[in-house]
Amino acid sequence: MTGMVSSVPRQPPAATTFTGHRGRQVDRDLIGWADTVLAMDRTVLAALQDLATPPDLPKLRLYLDGQDVPDPYGGDTTTFAAVVDAGADRHL
Questions:
Q1: Which residues, other chains included, contact 64 with Cβ-Cβ below 8 Å and sequence gap of 6+?
Q2: pLDDT tens-digit series, residues 19-34
Q3: Which of left, alpha, beta for 20 (phi over 0: left; psi -120 to 50: alpha)?
Q4: Would you say the pTM of this structure is higher than 0.85?
Q5: Cys staple from 39: which of 20, 43, 44, 82, with CB 3.0 to 4.6 Å?
């Protein structure tokens, strides 16, 4: 299966669309509903841990196992591409 994924050319971030997807504020109910909750950095992870109930704490973890992903907000296409590339080898 890995060979199939790596043979598919990845589109640049500017061509990616998320039609139909909407952001929403994370709350305790959403954490309870989810199987896994991935945080992009340790600050967000800590906020999620404060929000979660004790049984839901094992669901919470960093997206890149122990490594923060820089926030590209306000950056250009190159900045977003660098963030995508930081995790692409592990998750695509």
A1: 86, 87, 90
A2: 787 888 999 999 999 9
A3: left
A4: no
A5: 44
